[in-house]
Amino acid sequence: MSKKVEEWTVLSMLEWATDFFENKDIPDPRHSIEWLLAETLEIKRLDLYLKFDRPLSPQELDTLRPMVKRRAQHEPLQYIVGYTDFINAHISVNEQVLIPRIETEQLVEIILDEHQSEEDLSVLDIGTGSGCIPIALKMEQTSWEVSGIDISEGAIHTARNNAEQNDADVSFTKGDILNPNSIIENGPFNIIVSNPPYVKPGEKDILQQQVKDYEPAEALFFGDLEKMYNSIIEFASQKLTENGYLYLELHEKYSQEILAIFDEQNWSARIENDYDKKPRFIIAQQR
Ligand SMILES: C[S@@+](CC[C@H](N)C(=O)[O-])C[C@H]1O[C@@H](n2cnc3c(N)ncnc32)[C@H](O)[C@@H]1O
């Protein structure tokens, strides 16, 4: 960004920063600068295309410059702007919480779809992170009683702020699924949902730099998937209502392994694919 200030326009910034990000191996370089520029100008991304000749003021450049610098170091866009949209919710994010993913939106959509006409359900989300899952559920189904737990204090703090920001009455408490006595939410629940950490530490190198360098390790990695899923199943066996449902997101590579765990525990379970046709979710009930 070394041109003279008055020379910068929307178009020249888009072109320059796209090249700059490309040279730094930033994923989706054009998308990155569009997002940051739209955020700076407080307009929609598409509206940039109607304003190519609009000059950028010195104040706008002062706002944009540190954001471009952070992105050039591979920091995720959502942490830079501080939020992401999740279905119907505006979710603030920071380095204490995983950035909600599109697959997880799909998990919520499956739940909403399958329980559309049911009122007054009780739902618990295990490993709630930003609180995106329970907040989105509560915003769509206001009669449901929805709560979330997480092992991370930082996540609980962020999730509570997000609930308040979205005017969603959801309670969040600290709890460790590997130590069920630490969970104060008693149930019984009609639905338990979880997107637990599911990347094995040995797979760290295949993750994008923006993921492994910025997102919280305890949200991403767990070495012993069998232990994690068995703990969830054990907790759910005690806390689900009769005919209650467990909805889980999983690593596509381990879907059959996880299905076998459910079978061993005498649960009936089915796999659903995500939009990329990868096995991504398990929907299970106790037999
Ligand atoms: C993959 S992230 C999911 C976050 C959020 N639900 C989402 O879908 O965006 C997993 C979450 O589980 C939490 N977690 C990890 N180990 C846990 C444990 N033993 N008990 C409870 N939560 C745990 C992490 O802190 C993290 O917030």
UniProtKB/TrEMBL annotation:
Residues 13-82 form the Release factor glutamine methyltransferase N-terminal domain. PROSITE patterns: N6_MTASE (PS00092). Signal peptide: none annotated. GO terms for molecular function: nucleic acid binding; protein methyltransferase activity. Residues 118-251 form the Methyltransferase domain. SUPFAM superfamilies: S-adenosyl-L-methionine-dependent methyltransferases. Keywords: Methyltransferase, S-adenosyl-L-methionine, Transferase. It holds the Pfam family Methyltransf_31. CDD domains: AdoMet_MTases. InterPro entries: DNA_methylase_N6_adenine_CS (IPR002052), HemK-like (IPR004556), Methyltranfer_dom (IPR025714), N5-glutamine_MTase (IPR050320), PrmC_N (IPR040758), RF_methyltr_PrmC (IPR019874), SAM-dependent_MTases_sf (IPR029063). One of its GO terms (biological process) is methylation. It comes from the Bacteria. This is Protein-(Glutamine-N5) methyltransferase, release factor-specific.
